[in-house]
Description:
This protein is 18% helix and 30% strand. It has 291 residues and is of the alpha/beta class. Helix 2 (23-34) runs parallel beside helix 3. The chain starts with 14 loop residues before the first helix and ends with a strand. The mean pLDDT is 94. The site of S-adenosylmethionine has 19 residues, from helix 3 and helix 5.
Amino acid sequence: MKTMNKKIARSFDSWHFAMMNDDTRNKSLEYCFRTMSLADKTVLEIGTGAGLTAIQMAKAGARHIYTCEFNLQLFEVAKTVIAQSPYANKITIFDKHSSEIFLKEQPRFDVIFSETLDCRVIGEGFYTVANDIRRLANENTTIIPNKVQQFEYLVESKDLHQLNCCLSSSEPALEAINSFSTETYFPVRTRNFEILPLSDPVLIKEYCYLDDQPKKHVSQKVNSNRSSCCHGLISFFNAHFGRSIISNTSLSTAGHWHQAYHPLTTPRNLTVGESYQISINFNGKVEANNA
Ligand SMILES: C[S@@+](CC[C@H](N)C(=O)[O-])C[C@H]1O[C@@H](n2cnc3c(N)ncnc32)[C@H](O)[C@@H]1O
């Protein structure tokens, strides 16, 4: 049994603990680094966290890893963790945001790695990380993850609907609070709620850090397999880290990532066999219209 360290007021999210214990993720990343010939490569990592992945890359043989962490508490943790590892001389860590590093000169990076994905890909700063990767990569740089695929399916779920809007009939005026409902998405553990899928999952978007139009609005046709009321969509991702694919589907029960629920502005009735055009904008807001 591990003892608890003395407590300090924390300035980073509590999911960091769950992430450190997410063996599936951690082993998949380790496998990715081991199988991508890092030997003699100069690597840039965006987002050190507690230092785990920088150490994994050093272990996999990288010549040098430059890494950055803008949360100062995590920076201090990572500095200690790295200093106590056998790889301290191979890792340089900056207490900075990726937009503040290498503004004048930079090494030629063979690899740029970032695991800054939230349940719906973009929420941990995907677009700013993408800008910085485009600024710091050269024509031969390998970017990891190389692509992140996002899948969506339509759902009926009063449980999820009620997490985002007040349906009070006894005091109708309470519905005033609904002006503050989430419009984009929020994390849910789908296995904890009653959810009826109304379609198969469809691939709706592929994110790639080098994409020159990462914020492009996308849409996809989906067939409804039931006549029912659709409250929103659930999304999950398959992130391709070299040879490892890391996913946050509801089937990956051990993972620290939740799935993402995207409410429709207004629930709508779907007809079995009909096609609907699902569109998703850059911040995760979805719409479902007749195709
Ligand atoms: C999901 S954690 C992953 C940490 C570590 N790479 C790992 O996989 O274990 C991402 C970390 O990146 C940091 N971060 C996110 N965006 C960043 C940015 N643009 N520049 C520097 N740090 C960033 C966050 O504070 C967080 O600690």
